[in-house]
TrEMBL record:
Record's keyword terms, sorted: Hydrolase, Protease, Thiol protease
Recorded superkingdom: Bacteria
The protein's name in its UniProt record: Peptidoglycan endopeptidase
Organism the protein comes from: Kribbella turkmenica
SUPFAM superfamilies documented for this protein: Cysteine proteinases, PGBD-like
GO terms (BP aspect): proteolysis
Length: 289
């Protein structure tokens, strides 16, 4: 029994000693294992700090420069912050009523309108006619299909498709044709200051009456009519549009109905009835409702 007790105590002592002492297998494993390389994440970090124990605990900090966005990403983000009217023609933006910008001017030039860069009622109206002439849905706004047809038409200098009313030589719409008919019916009506009926007209009373008969209402005075119309160039003006006479200071003092060429219908002054006459000055502006 004493011998057994000593052997048991000795075995316990050896077991405890082996648990406390580290296993010396590091060298053997090191001979057969290849050192693993540290894996650096591919994602760019703004700041990378590495603390290394150097000589007494000093730390080395490595700072990586911030990643720069690509030029394409920057350009795309800049484009989306601009109004649609300032997007490039190549991007074929979805232009709608009241959009503004140089891309709207391109559309107006292609539609042979006075290019002022504002997507107004006249642009919508002519665009609908253009779409109908090419078998497109007449929405009055620029979509991808309309862009494709319009850029082709501009390149080949063809505006309307076959059978379009807009391709006629006169170029007048149904409304402007009505205006010209109503204007001619009143030939010989006397001039009357402040007159707005067939008993007598002043200049704006005459144009207002004619336009109302054709289906559209105008303000009372020539200045108000000028403000209420879409201003177009002389080259873009069509018979039936309004022609305004401007003073040296830029004010409007007379209005008539453009009859094509260098002619207009108007009620000019006392003693001279409504008639078709020549435009006698270059100080004129044209407007379209």
């Amino acid at each position: 029994m004493p011998v057994t007790a000593r052997r048991t105590s000795l075995s316990r002592a050896v077991s405890q000693t082996s648990e406390l002492s580290p296993r010396s297998t590091d060298r053997t494993l090191a001979k057969h294992r290849k050192p693993t390389k540290p894996v650096t994440p591919r994602a760019a970090a703004t700041v990378l700090s590495v603390g290394l124990a150097v000589g007494g605990g000093a730390a080395i900090t490595l700072t990586a420069p911030p990643a720069t966005a690509s030029a394409a990403t920057t350009s795309a983000s800049a484009t989306t912050t601009l109004p649609r009217g300032y997007w490039t023609v190549a991007s074929r933006p979805l232009l709608r009523f009241r959009d503004k910008g140089p891309t709207v001017k391109y559309v107006q030039k292609a539609l042979r309108l006075g290019p002022d860069g504002y997507f107004g009622t006249s642009t919508v109206r002519v665009l609908k006619k253009f779409q109908s002439s090419w078998g497109l849905r007449p929405t009055g706004y620029m979509d991808k299909l309309t862009w494709g047809r319009l850029t082709w038409a501009a390149k080949h200098k063809v505006l309307y498709g076959k059978g379009s009313a807009g391709s006629s030589s006169s170029g007048t719409t149904t409304f402007r044709a009505k205006v010209l008919r109503e204007a001619a019916k009143l030939k010989g009506t006397p001039y009357r200051y402040g007159g707005t009926t067939p008993r007598g007209f002043d200049c704006s009373g005459y144009t207002g009456y004619v336009y109302k008969k054709a289906g559209k209402k105008l303000p009372r005075t020539s200045r108000a009519q000028y403000s209420a119309t879409k201003h177009i160039s002389r080259k873009s003006a069509k018979p039936g549009d309004l022609v305004f006479f401007k003073s040296g200071g830029g004010g409007v003092y007379h209005v008539g109905i453009f009859a094509g060429g260098n002619m207009l219908w108007h009620s000019s002054k006392p003693g001279v009835p409504v008639r078709k006459a020549k435009i006698w000055t270059k100080s004129v502006a044209f407007g379209r409702v």
